[in-house]
Amino acid sequence: MLKLYFGNSVTIISTLLLGLNIGYMLWGYLSRATIQKWGMIILIFILLHGALWYFANVRDLYSNSIIYATDGSVGMGLFSVSSIQSIVFWVASVAIWMLGIISIFKPEYRQNIFFIIVVVSFAQIAFIEGSRMWLYNSVPTRFDYM
Question: What's the rounded Cα separation, in Å, for the pair 59 and 129?
Fold first, then answer.
């Protein structure tokens, strides 16, 4: 199981970003009474969350899945483009970005928007990382590329 999160340099970076994302979500919740600039908090979180998923997509060879879906010239990555994991990822990502855009125009709702983004992000992380763990325990040979 350590291979999933510490197998190579990309997995280590994505693991650190995963911890940083969860820590930032907890910090935002615990510091909610003292935070004044919710717009900045949302922006930093969206950027941090994007960095996590960039490295997670590299880690899981998602670009290979896209190429495999278009012309089949390379082997598929960990999850296919049409998998439930991809769908959950993209739906949650679009929701997070849309909420970020809404927060620009609705400053009075920024704190609430941050908490909605946190819930969506936590569900996204839990589902995809849980899927990776389940897949690793079911078919460990899928992770031989690490």
Answer: 12
